[in-house]
Structures are given as C-alpha cells and as structure tokens.
Amino acid sequence: MTxxxxxxxxxxxxxxxGMLFAAGASASALEQFKTFVSGTKSAKGDxxxxxxxxxxxxxxxxxxxxxxxxxxxxxxxxIWTYVKPYEQLLQADGEQLYIYxxxxxxxxxxxxxxxxxxxxxxxxxxxxxLEKNFTLAEAGSRDGLEWLxxxxxxxxxxxxxxxxxxxxxxxxxxxxxxxxxxxSVLAFKNFQxxxxxxxxxxKFVMPKGADVFNN
Length: 215
Fold this sequence. Notes:
Blueprint: H1 3-39, E1 42-53, E2 61-62, E3 66-73, E4 77-84, E5 88-93, E6 96-101, E7 106-111, H2 120-125, E8 134-142, E9 145-152, E10 159-167, E11 170-178, E12 182-193, E13 211-214
Parallel strand pairs: 7-13
Antiparallel strand pairs: 1-2, 1-3, 1-12, 3-4, 4-5, 5-6, 6-7, 8-9, 9-10, 10-11, 11-12
C-alpha cells in the first residue's frame, strides 16, 4: 500500500471512529436514563435547589440555595424534605399528596391521581411509562454530564421543558424551565439506588394540631 493510500485509509478509519463515537455519545443520555428508570425501583439522597430568573437585558438572578433530602419508591411514593432556608415537606403515599409547612403547622392535601403526569416529579417518582407524557431527546454533554431533554406532551403543565443530567446511569442534575422565564436548578448528591424500604415508610402522620386544607 502506498503512503497516500495508507493516509487515506487512516483518515477514513479516523472518520468512521469519530462517527461511531458521536453516535454512541448521542444515545448515551437516553440509554442511561432508560436503564435508570427500569432498574431503580426506589432511591434516596440529598438535593440542592436554586431558582434562576432571566431578566430582559440583565444578568440572570439566582435565589437563595435550598437544601434537603429525598426518598422515593415507584410508583408515586415519595418524601421530599426541604431543610433550609425553611422547613417544608412534600409526601405522597401513592394515592394522596401532603404538603406540610412546619412554620405555619399547616397541611394541604390533594389526590395524587394523575397529578404526577407531566410534572418533574414523574421523572423520578412516577411509573416507567414516561414516554406517554414526555417527548425525550438527547441534549448533548455539559459540565461532565450527558443531558436528556424531556418536553411535556400536555399543553397545560407548569413546566415547558425539563433537562436531566446523568453520569454513570444516575441523574445528578435537573433543570426545570417554566413559562415565566424561570429555571429551577437541582443537584443530587449521595444518590442511593434501591435501599431497603417498606410501604408504611411513606404513610403520612398528621402533625398534632395542624390546620388541614383539602384541595
């Protein structure tokens, strides 16, 4: 083989490898996510949350950092606890959703039903049939994560777009963009998949003397 042919062969090989790599990368976030959903029946960990609002002609403004913990068991059972800057609890037992404001000693309840539907909670806590409510698409690599974009199919949802950042088959970040130009940015730490749990763990215990509002 002549030098020219060798160079041509090497160039073709490099191009083919590049195309294969690009194809693998473009599918990685979706494959990671599908593996996570099918193989993770429950999980727990810590989270941080910050809301970012983009003003016209001005730099984005971020709210104070909120921190807390989460636990979930599919489908529809979860405990989402805000610890700072204020204490609030969102808890669902598969049928009912409870929102508890500790400072006000107030509980708001609502039927879970299809409330998860196209909400961000459905990404982590819902059933495996996510493509029923979301259109999923690759969103490239950023900050060392492979990103997946989930667009709700319903038109009456709070969020226009949800992005999930994954690494090694585990979601490490979510970005929730609403119709008002605000984005909630969440980061997950100490993510433990399939810890030992029982159904009673997610049963809400009404705080003594709490005011209850049913929606």
